[in-house]
Design a protein that fits this description.
- There is one protein chain.
- By secondary structure, the protein is α/β, with parallel strands linked by helices.
- 32% of the residues lie in helices and 19% in strands.
- It has 3 domains: 47 residues, no CATH class; 294 residues, no CATH class; 103 residues, Nucleic acid-binding proteins (OB fold (Dihydrolipoamide Acetyltransferase, E2P), Beta Barrel), CATH 2.40.50.
- Helix 10 crosses helix 14.
Length: 523
């Protein structure tokens, strides 16, 4: 008997004609050729590629092609369009930004700092761990070491870790109003107090500011101007409690500004911000010198030195938003209001993203005679740097390095050596720091370190622009082994570069840092 189901499969058969096959093959080849074309044709790839040290061999080759593929213009356009669509329709964030309730944005490493394993957690040994070229140093021993260096010179250390947003703005996370103090917060304060470090806990000051919207900016990792001013007054009361009597040498003017926070930049919407997130308005109070009607400036002869990161720079540095196009400095940030509260300016060393190590390295490079006049160091940095364990800290670009200060007694030659002046250098690039994807760091602007060697074998530490406004600069494509002509100025003389995030894998504190205002390849 014939099986009635023998030919049922013929009813489900789908036939594709020659035209359909040709179209499918063409689409498949196009899918393969567009990425290849982006790699091979200069007009289809970014103006400059991120340069990063990679392993050799097949693994290195695969990593290089993978990095290039991730930055293909076509794929980047698709990714940004998808991110804009998901953020607008679903309120979704990305691997850097958590999107909370009612338009509140949070930096994911900040969440890890508050709700993660804590700074005392030791990562277990594993062959799968990320390889690094420097051993990890936890923060507390490094801070104690720095405090001991200062104590030898009879210098006070006033340590001010600024609470990160999730510690004091909980409502956007769906948590009850209030504050969250990580379990290790008080333990660190107690440990540092045993070596004479004055630990200033700003949590009560910030908590007294009212609701979350009065404490921190919704789209930014940083505090509001009013909270920043309250913090500056609190720190000033610890540094110089007798100040405040007599006429002030400063006047204050209020200005209305608006901008988008750094977390919006980290969403990387590719120009779609206006359709997704409104700008934030803020009232800034600029502090002006009454005599000159100019913004308060850093005083290199001050007895108080302020070391800081972007929490100090956020309303000082035009690169961080809330500035008009013509401004290079706003003059309404923490340093200005600390000067207003103390009645005198401090010497300011503030580097975005450099609160853990870069500011101490810059401080250590001060001339011995200048170090000798310092009486108090105020060290302001994000609590994120303090609270993250090793692996999340490294991924966030945080590294704690030991820094040795110059000898206490300045020799006559050190005291009378004239400051370096602008000059031209023709030299060969020997080493350079890596530059990651500009869309990944929390800051839109960064400089990177290089080591040049001149014809006489002399070494020169030079910083150049890595990226600005999250766009790679031409210097990012510089290649070791090639000769360049550079116009150099001392790094401290370029205010924008001096405040920018530093990508420094080389760390040469024995060399004076320069900044290349311009460069060209020498054939």
């Amino acid at each position: 008997m014939k099986n009635p189901y023998e030919h049922d499969w013929l009813d489900d058969e789908v036939r594709v004609g020659r035209t359909g096959l040709r179209l499918g093959l063409a689409a498949f080849l196009l899918f393969l050729l567009v990425p290849a074309g982006s790699l091979l044709l200069p007009s289809m790839r970014p103006a400059a590629e991120a340069v990063k040290a990679k392993p050799s061999g097949w693994k290195g080759l695969f990593s290089a092609w993978e990095a290039k593929a991730k930055s293909l213009p076509l794929f980047e356009s698709w990714r940004r369009a998808d991110q804009t669509r998901f953020t607008r329709l679903l309120g979704a964030g990305n691997q850097k930004v958590f999107s909370g309730r009612d338009g509140w944005l949070y930096y994911r490493p900040d969440l890890e700092a508050v709700f993660g394993k804590g700074p005392y957690y030791e990562e277990p040994p594993s062959v799968a761990r990320e390889r690094t070229h420097r051993a990890w140093q936890p923060p507390v021993p490094v801070i104690r070491e720095f405090a001991a260096e200062l104590a030898k010179r009879d210098v006070r250390l006033v340590f001010v870790p600024v609470p990160v947003k999730p510690m004091v703005c909980r409502e956007g996370l769906g948590l009850p109003a209030g504050t969250t103090t990580p379990p290790d917060w008080q333990r660190m304060a107690d440990e540092l107090a045993t070596v004479g470090v004055e630990f200033v806990d700003l949590t009560p000051t910030i908590a007294s500011r009212g609701g979350d919207a009065e404490r921190y900016l919704k789209q930014d990792t940083h505090w509001t101007p009013e909270t920043m001013e309250a913090a500056a007054r609190e720190v000033a009361s610890r540094v110089a409690p007798s100040t405040g009597s007599g006429p002030s040498p400063y006047t204050v003017e209020s200005v209305e500004r608006e901008g988008r926070g750094d977390l919006v930049g980290m969403l990387d919407l590719g120009g779609g911000e206006e359709a997704v997130l409104p700008t934030e308005r803020a009232t800034l109070r600029r502090v002006l010198d009454t005599a000159t009607e100019e913004s308060v400036v850093s005083d290199p002869a001050a007895e108080v030195v302020l070391l800081g990161d972007s929490f100090v720079n956020v309303f000082e540095d035009a690169e961080l938003g809330f500035a008009e196009e013509s401004e290079t400095s706003i003059g309404a940030g923490f340093a200005s209001h600390l000067a207003l509260a103390m009645g005198r300016p401090a010497q300011v060393i503030a580097i975005n993203g450099g609160g853990a190590s870069a500011v101490r390295e810059a401080f250590a490079r001060l001339p011995a005679a200048q170090l000798a006049q310092v009486k108090t160091v105020v060290w302001v940095l994000s609590a994120r740097d303090l609270l993250l364990p090793e692996i999340p800290a490294r991924r966030a670009g945080i590294e704690w390095r030991s820094v040795a200060l110059r000898e206490m007694d300045a020799t006559p030659s050190e005291a009378t050596t004239p400051p370096p002046v602008a000059r031209e250098l023709v030299a060969t690039l020997r080493e350079r720091s890596a530059i990651d994807d500009p869309n990944q760091p929390p800051y839109a602007t960064a400089i990177f370190s290089t080591l040049f060697e001149d014809g006489d074998g002399g070494e020169h530490a030079v910083f150049l622009w890595a990226f600005r406004d999250r766009k790679l600069e031409p210097a990012a494509a510089m290649e070791p082994g090639r000769r360049y002509r550079l116009r150099l100025v001392p790094l401290g003389e370029d205010a924008a570069a001096n405040r920018a995030t530093r990508l420094d894998d080389l760390f040469r504190p024995d060399l004076d840092p320069w900044f290349a205002a311009s460069f060209e390849l020498v054939e």
